[in-house]
Specification:
Blueprint lengths: L2 H22 L3 H8 L3 H10 L1 H31 L3 H11 L22 H14 L1 H6 L23
Helix pairs in contact: 1-2, 1-4, 3-4, 4-5
Organism: Candidatus Yanofskybacteria bacterium RIFCSPHIGHO2_01_FULL_41_21
Protein name: Homeodomain phBC6A51-type domain-containing protein
Amino acid sequence: MSKEKTIKIRQKKLKKAFIEQLKRTPTVELACEKAGVARTNIYRWVKNSKKFAKEIDLALTEGRIFISDIAESQIFSLIKDKKFDAIRFWLTHNEPRYRNTLEIKGHLTQASEPLTPEQTKLLREALKLALPQQNAQNNNQPKLAQDGTGTDGEEPEFPD
């Protein structure tokens, strides 16, 4: 058997071992360690094979589901043992009545007073920073009157 073929067979076995380990421990570092594969090899294989990259994504998803299932089982065990922290955790994350909420009450009003010259200047500077590609292309920004409206008295339309 040629050296190249031997290497391909070995890589195939290492990839399979890594993928299987990833399904049980969904972190690349741990899966590499347990499968005996260097991280650099994994990243090189991913770079060279979209199929392998997709297999990794699927294995990570399966592994996360597996670990989440184990974690939930542990939470249920702690709840059965009447551990208050586990009970509170479960309720706040699974029952809307027990979630931490923030209630904000008040009234919003829209100020219709004109912008000061300083505010107009700040608005123009902000637009220059927010739309650098447009400014570089044609330097056409909406014209603002002193009161912050367009020069025609209407609200200026800013490009998306």
